[in-house]
UniProtKB/TrEMBL annotation:
UniProt protein name: Methenyltetrahydrofolate cyclohydrolase
Function: Catalyzes the oxidation of 5,10-methylenetetrahydrofolate to 5,10-methenyltetrahydrofolate and then the hydrolysis of 5,10-methenyltetrahydrofolate to 10-formyltetrahydrofolate.
Any one Gene Ontology BP term: photorespiration
Key words, A-Z: Hydrolase, Multifunctional enzyme, NADP, One-carbon metabolism, Oxidoreductase, Photorespiration
Region (Disordered): 40-92
Cellular compartments per GO CC: cytosol
Gene of this entry: LOC101755744
Tetrahydrofolate dehydrogenase/cyclohydrolase NAD(P)-binding domain sequence ranges: 235-382
Gene3D superfamilies membership: Leucine Dehydrogenase, chain A, domain 1, NAD(P)-binding Rossmann-like Domain
Length: 388
């Protein structure tokens, strides 16, 4: 039963003062959604045993979340007065499952590479991604290197406009305009942060909506926030968090998810996307008092604060799922580069409390890049009339 059919049935029941019936319809529909997702997962599993290299990226509509309307169940009066028993985790002896983002990303890339090959044989073109990199921040340079390498691996053409940190805003705008007009470019990404003297919003708004593979254009962000609308692109890190949860079979609907951070790149779009998946979302930011009291009540914690080891084991409920988006450089004289990357979560502590956790590196990062490639492929498919 589609979401629209459910809405019509349930609305009719509500109009005729049949609130319990309406509620039942939604519950059945949710069950069906779970069942169809489970059936799809079982199919995937079957295919996976035949060939491990068959894990696909989740479809765009699956990542955008099921389209259910809000209906609040009124709890029975007596029950609502009795607080639920506190989960003390007393009989819980857990070492978390490590969610292997590297392997998930590899499978998604293999699937994208196959689609790119098919596109080339059918229309004679491959998708193209253009990156604008301003200045010489070491972290930005290495992110862009990973993105370019990802393109190479799947057969996506990549173009790079590298501008000095002291260039003018208009020079960046010119690069964006050039890529907007280039028909071989299907995705444009301006690597953030930009130097302080530039108006980031003006530059991001200049990217053609149809090529905004980062999903940072205000119209794409607005359409993500409005549940009745569909953005053309979902921001890659937010999409990666959902993909990791879905691929790991972790239920989102109805769960209490806390997102740490509210940046345009990760925190904000992730919190919006989670709501489209019907999670109850708390957002923690720098001004939140007593953040650990909120995370301790959460079934899923997604951290994108950019602060190494912010989230301690004591911040987590027993059995919580932890998605660590942080990539913080910390000094490490034993490393070739003199530093290594660490997450926002104190992994050694969290792994003893959580039921599943993403490592850093090898968790969210590679899947985020796979999502960028996937957005670029989707954009090219739209242009060549090959969309599903
Ligand atoms: N800087 C850090 N992450 C990102 C990203 O996902 N996209 C862009 N454009 N800049 C970033």
């Amino acid at each position: 039963m589609g979401g629209a059919a459910v809405a019509v049935l349930a609305a009719a029941a509500t109009r005729h003062n049949r609130a319990p019936l309406a509620s039942l319809i939604y519950r059945v529909a949710r069950g069906l959604h779970d069942a169809s997702a489970a059936a799809a997962a079982a199919e995937e599993e079957k295919a996976g045993t035949q060939s491990r290299r068959r894990r696909r990226r989740s479809s765009s509509s699956l990542l955008l979340g099921p389209d259910f309307p809000d209906t609040w169940d009124t709890p029975p009066r007596a029950a609502s007065r009795t607080p639920p028993p506190r989960d003390t985790g007393a009989d819980y002896d857990c070492t978390a499952t490590i969610i292997d983002g590297k392997s998930i990303a590899e499978d998604i890339r293999l699937h994208i590479a196959e689609e790119v090959r098919q596109m080339k044989s059918v229309v004679g073109h491959v998708p193209g991604l253009a990156v604008v990199l301003v200045g010489n921040r070491r972290d930005s340079e290495s992110y862009v290197r990973y993105k370019t390498k990802g393109c190479e691996e799947v057969g996506i053409k990549s173009l790079l406009a590298k501008l000095p940190g002291n260039c003018t805003e208009d020079q960046v705008m010119d690069s964006v305009s050039r890529f907007n007009e280039d028909p071989s470019v299907h995705g444009i990404l301006v690597q953030l942060p930009l130097p302080q003297h530039m108006d980031e919003e003006r530059i991001l708004s200049a990217i053609s909506l149809e090529k905004d593979v980062d999903g940072f254009h205000p119209l794409n962000v607005g359409n993500l926030a409005l549940r009745s609308r569909k953005p053309l692109f979902l921001p890659c890190a937010a999409k990666a968090c959902i993909e990791l949860l879905l691929q790991s079979g972790i239920e989102i609907m109805g769960k209490h998810v806390t997102v740490i951070g509210r940046s345009k790149v990760v925190g904000l779009p992730t919190s919006l996307l989670l709501q489209r998946h019907h999670a109850t979302v708390s957002i923690i930011h720098a001004f939140t008092t007593n953040p650990e009291a909120i995370t301790r009540e959460s079934d899923i914690v997604i951290s994108a604060a950019g602060v190494a080891n912010l989230v301690r084991g004591s911040w987590l409920k027993q059995g919580a799922v932890v998605i660590d988006v942080g990539t913080n450089p910390i000094e490490d004289p034993t490393s070739d580069y003199g530093y290594r990357l660490t997450g926002d979560v104190c992994f050694e502590e969290a792994v003893k409390v959580a039921s599943a956790i993403t490592p850093v590196p090898g968790g969210v990062g590679p899947v985020t890049i796979a999502m960028l490639l996937s957005n670029t492929l989707d954009s090219a498919k739209r242009v060549y009339g090959l969309s599903d």
